[in-house]
Amino acid sequence: MMKSHWSRREFLSFMGRTAGATAVALPVMSCSGTDPDAALAGISPVAPGTDDEVVLADGLGYDLLVSWPEQINGKGERFGFNNDYTAFFPIDGNPHDGLLWVNHEEVLSGYFASPGDPEEKSREDVEREVLEVGGSIIRISRQGGRWRLVRNDRFNRRISGATRIPIISEQPIAGSRTAVGTLGNCAGGVTPWQTVLTCEENFHFFYGDVSFDTGERVHEKSRLIGWDRYLYHPPEHYGWVVEVDPFTGAANKLTALGRFAHEGATVTLARDGRAVVYMGDDKTDEHIYKFVGGEPGSLARGALYVADTDQGRWLPLDVAGDTRLQQAFGSQTELLVRTREAAKLVGATPQDRPEDIEIDPQTGAVFISLTKHKERPFGSILKLVEKDGDPSAQEFAASTFLAGGPETGFACPDNLVFDPRGNLWMCTDIASYEINEPPYDSFPSNGLFHIPMSGMHAGVPVQVAYAPPGAELTGPTFSPDGRTLFLSVQHPGENSDSTDALDSHWPDGGDALPRPGVICVSGPLLDQLTAV
Ligand code: FEO
Ligand code: CA
Ligand code: CA
Questions:
Q1: Counting ligands in written order, which one lies closest to the CA of residue 475?
Q2: How many CA atoms lie within 13 A of 26 on its CB side?
Q3: What CA–CA distance (Å, rounded) separates 382 from 389?
Q4: What's the confidence (pLDDT) of residue 37?
Q5: 344 Cα to the center of ligand 3, angstroms
Q6: Are 66 and 79 in contact (CB under 8 A)?
Q7: Is 14 helix (H, G, I), strand (E, B) or coil?
Q8: 85 CA to middle of ligand 2, Å?
Q9: Cα(182) to centroid of ligand 3, in Å?
Q10: Measuring CA to CA, which residue among 6, 1, 46, 38 is closest to residue 20?
Q11: Which residues have C-beta atoms less than 6 Å from ligand 1?
């Protein structure tokens, strides 16, 4: 299905404006095809609105690539619900043929699959929901200028809330070395050895959590999605980073990276070749973490740190090296299950809900979305610069890169991505029930922003898209040639109370139920800004 959002009239108008701008900018463009100021000359920013559509800046259009609940393979497996993070893996180095990993985070838009209130769910509802989360691996290829899902390709598969996944740990976790399913799969990362890291974020929505406040293990039941009404799996089996080989589907839960509401896991390399992973815990006043792998090419073992952003120090979370931690935890495995408690014991800095993290490919600086706090409701982007530019350093400098608010035109930053030219893109996630309400009354929708990192507009966000009602735009990934932006449209119509009063019908329109899906954004403006 083609949903081009730039009409012939708009396209010609865009080309006319671009031609005028180019006449002025030509001397610059002839020196550098990637001059940021020349590239920006063609943008007319999107004014945020409430249309039931993905509304894009002039010069951009989109195709719907895949959407819930399309069948993806001959086994009858279906593309899951509420797609989030995406990652692209070329096959045989071909930039136009590869595998797309897609996270499926949650089933909170309850009217799609089953009642939103866990008290009203049946066992059948829960068993159906279990198959909606986790991830999809789909083969996609670009032919005739358009990306398409290769349906029934041999690589196409689902990993879901029912898939048995080994737990990589020194000791069994809650008596087992195997977990049933992955869930809450929010953002993620890609390793240098071409595996995907899919992150279990709000795991407590599904099977609840465990508390050790009384000195005893107490199971606190889920109050939202509530699978624990019918199924029992230990909450300790969730809240991890899960590593998946997209070409084989092999998956492992990596306990060395800690257990918390993992938003994402962004990987770079230390000078000695070990992987370094930056991670945020998306909960109010929780923390930012860093993991340094024990040996190159593996995340099975290594050192976990938590950030003291006041003093610019990474604080080790190592039972063997800290008497406070020895007194609190019987082993490193126990510490990892209760990572948040360990972080507080060593004095980590509380944060404003850390979301996605990305690393500037030009400078190595680490950018962290802090989505919001009740005292700072518009959120900000934090910038960390490691000492001597070494990702495995113990010290860093922290500063605010951008603050959200009506003046800067964005609120609640979430997913980030650098494009192939080294400029930053940001998606926002104002909660659907807060959009258009104070203090977000100047924000009628969530958006996508382009943030140049050099030139005279450096650090100034430009809005280039807004999402349908109830939705956020998530999981931005650029194709290797920079000519396509894969983008998730997550939870359209989330705020609708019932199927009789839907506030979105995206992508089908009419009276249709809204359906989350992944779109491919392209067009002359993207070519101008990001193509390489
Ligand atoms: Fe799933 Fe923190 O966003
Ligand atoms: Ca997110
Ligand atoms: Ca979010």
A1: 2
A2: 5
A3: 17
A4: 80
A5: 23
A6: yes
A7: helix
A8: 8
A9: 19
A10: 38
A11: 105, 186, 201, 263, 282, 355, 414
Query: Residue 389: helix, strand or coil by DSSP?
Result: helix
Q: Quote the DSSP letter at residue 513.
A: P
Type of residue at 134: G
β-bridge pairing 134-143 and 396-403:
unpaired
pLDDT confidence of 110, banded at 50, 70, 90? low
- Residue carrying structure tokens 């020349």: 38
Q: What is the pLDDT of residue 8?
A: 28
Neighbours of ion ligand 3 (CB under 5 A): 414, 429
Question: H or E element: which one contains 30?
Answer: helix 8-31
- Cα-Cα-Cα-Cα dihedral sign, residues 161, 164, 168, 170: positive
Q: Which two tokens stand for residue 226?
A: 């509530």
Report which protein residue has its CA nearest ligand 1's atom 1: 186
| Closest-CA residue to 171 (of 406, 333, 392, 300) | 333
One-letter amino acid identity for 348?
A
Whether the per-residue pLDDT at 223 is higher than 80: the answer is yes
Backbone Cα Rg of the chain: 22
Dist. CA 42 → ligand 2 center (Å): 30
* Amino acid at position 221, single letter: K
Q: What is the DSSP string of 37-60?
A: HHHHTT--PPPP---SS-EE-TT-
- Residue 231 β-bridge partners: none
498: tokens are: 């019932």
**pLDDT score at 111:** 64
Query: Cβ distance 422 to 362 under 8 Å?
Result: yes
* CA 494 to mean position of chain CA atoms: 18
